[in-house]
């Protein structure tokens, strides 16, 4: 089967929550399946409550490239709280649910990757330090020197624990993430036992989920950033 549809992925800890009727026992997910046999899967973490058009286009492009794309609703516990962040056990529970859904649908564990943007890029990085995924990509992930919340670690401290090949994409002129911090993260990730690559692009043209100020569909750096994401998964999810 191919196409886009919504589904639910059971939480592993759902049975321990049986005594709580109001507890979340499933993660709502959006699934985009490729035509024909899937070569693997990408779990897309996103911090927006809605999918932007460019993000949907990227997810559809990943499916055209042969990947099953699963995007969990990371805010299904938020109860309308716009400040709710998903890290710690909640993040790993939601990722595990997606992982189990995919393996139940015939995807091999080492062919599952994770991709995230902004705070969800930080989440994707932390998943790669705690779960044996096949590959991970983070775009504009903050929290390099200081943790974003009490439930997550600073990236420079977690980096040596990476369990999967990790690609980090940043904007060299991003005012929220100094270049010096990116350099420290690059050095920290190099101490991990897996491959890592940190790339900085001029301006803000590193965002495959949106082109950023002043960029357009023909922007060389914008296209290069998207290509790196596809190449990273092509090279490491085998």
UniProtKB/TrEMBL annotation:
Provide the alphabetized UniProt keywords: Hydrolase
Residue stretches making up the Dienelactone hydrolase domain: 31-234
InterPro entries assigned to the protein according to its UniProt record, in alphabetical order: AB_hydrolase_fold, Dienelactn_hydro, Dienelactone_hydrolase-like
- Name it: Carboxymethylenebutenolidase
- Which EC number applies? 3.1.1.45
Domain of life of the native organism: Bacteria
Gene Ontology MF, one? carboxymethylenebutenolidase activity
- UniProt keyword Hydrolase present: yes
